[in-house]
Amino acid sequence: MIGAGPAGSAAAWHAAQQGLDVLIVDQAQFPRDKTCGDGLTPRAIHQLELMGIDVTSHYHSKGLKLHGFGGSVEAPWPDSPFGTLGSAMPRTELDQTLLDHAVAQDSVRFLGGAGATEVTVEGSIKQVRLSDGTQIHPRFVIVADGVRSTFGKQLGRTWHKGEVFGIAARSYCDTPFCDEPWIHSHLELRDAEGTIQPGYGWIFPLGDGRANVGCGALSTDKRPAKVNTKKLLHLYADQQRVAWEFAKPQHVTSALLPMGGAVSGVAGPNWMLIGDAAACVNPLNGEGIDYGLETARMAVAILGQGEDFSDTWPAVLREHYGEAFLLARTLARALTYPQFLPLTGPFALRKPLGKYIMPTAARLMGNLVVEQDRDLVARCWRAASGMSMRLRGDRVLWG
Ligand SMILES: Cc1cc2nc3c(=O)[nH]c(=O)nc-3n(C[C@H](O)[C@H](O)[C@H](O)COP(=O)(O)OP(=O)(O)OC[C@H]3O[C@@H](n4cnc5c(N)ncnc54)[C@H](O)[C@@H]3O)c2cc1C
């Protein structure tokens, strides 16, 4: 495994369950931080539970509270096979927990501070060279090296920035309201002059005396979000200071998020890219931890079947996420038009429509519609995403 984030560690754990010997390498020494909102939806909690990890005992959320355009709406996590609990955990802790869980398996070894720097490919990967000079001759390689995917790039991974992507910044703020059971998102951010800013803000309580406070915006090559996310974050934290009794934001960092499968070159004969490396991030809510955990499980499920993964892996990704990601990307693209939210926000967030629209939106944004759901929203969502897939799917997803 290249990379010991949620995707790499989960893949190592799943591979150990299949009786495989695993080496995980990461260029960082652990525990390490990762720029993230630290939010975990019920989908992510479900994946962690499948691995025997419970993170809800220290903090759990019951849903999302959305604010803006003169309204505030509560959207509880919907009743679904994933359960109705979310959580949030600083990545220094979550990633260490996952790595420890993997390394607790007898057949898993971890090398920290060891970047995978060179690769020898003769059809398949024959050798991986680490930053300390160690040479490895793996049977399979799962590449979970995150958003920049420097190792993946050597294998031909290309990120298509014409598709929508995220830019975001996060911080940690001390607050006495760290046990607040709703995670909060503000869809209308204004500067001191009252000018509306592109982007949205989030406050994810952590249950440890702090909240993860951040903001983000959606962008494309053609319509770059003209926003300094770190500056916007400070403005947002100032605006929320009284309500949350926030201390000064600490550890402010920012990063990009590739989304919705907008990369190509994700597999070869004996290797697969998973998690952020494969742009498996939900374009509508920026959630990627869950997709890292899910793609880990799915990739390991096809390891050892003796197949060439070059076509199999993109096909598996398309089957599981194609419809939802493609429709989400289309909707997210609409959000890159500066007029979109100011026009639709007041209807969506104010009474009387808000209390009907936003819980539905939160369900769709969280990709919490499942095959078994038979209600009207689920049927319409499936029909629309199926149509997008037929029109564009094979060309623009992991293709
Ligand atoms: C501001 C922001 C907010 C976000 N908020 C949320 C949120 O609230 N909830 C959510 O679910 N998702 C969120 N995300 C997305 C989430 O952070 C990622 O989707 C998630 O970290 C992906 O996990 P991963 O294991 O694929 O990659 P990573 O967690 O990035 O792990 C990759 C690992 O690979 C290692 N590595 C890289 N290159 C090499 C190499 N050559 N050799 C060895 N090791 C290497 C790195 O050191 C790193 O440890 C957010 C992202 C951003 C930027």
Automatic annotation (TrEMBL):
Which UniProt keywords are present, listed alphabetically?
Oxidoreductase
Q: Which InterPro entries match?
A: FAD-bd (IPR002938), FAD/NAD-bd_sf (IPR036188), Geranylgeranyl_Rdtase_fam (IPR011777), Geranylgeranyl_reductase (IPR050407)
Q: Which SUPFAM superfamilies does the entry link to?
A: FAD/NAD(P)-binding domain (SSF51905)
Q: Which domain of life is it from?
A: Bacteria
Q: Where is the FAD-binding domain?
A: 2-299
GO MF annotation, one? oxidoreductase activity, acting on the CH-CH group of donors, NAD or NADP as acceptor
Task: Write down the Gene3D superfamilies for this protein, in alphabetical order.
Answer: FAD/NAD(P)-binding domain (3.50.50.60)
Q: What are the EC numbers?
A: 1.-.-.-
Q: Which NCBIfam families match?
A: GG-red-SF (TIGR02032)
The protein in question is named: Oxidoreductase
Q: Which organism is it from?
A: Corynebacterium pseudopelargi
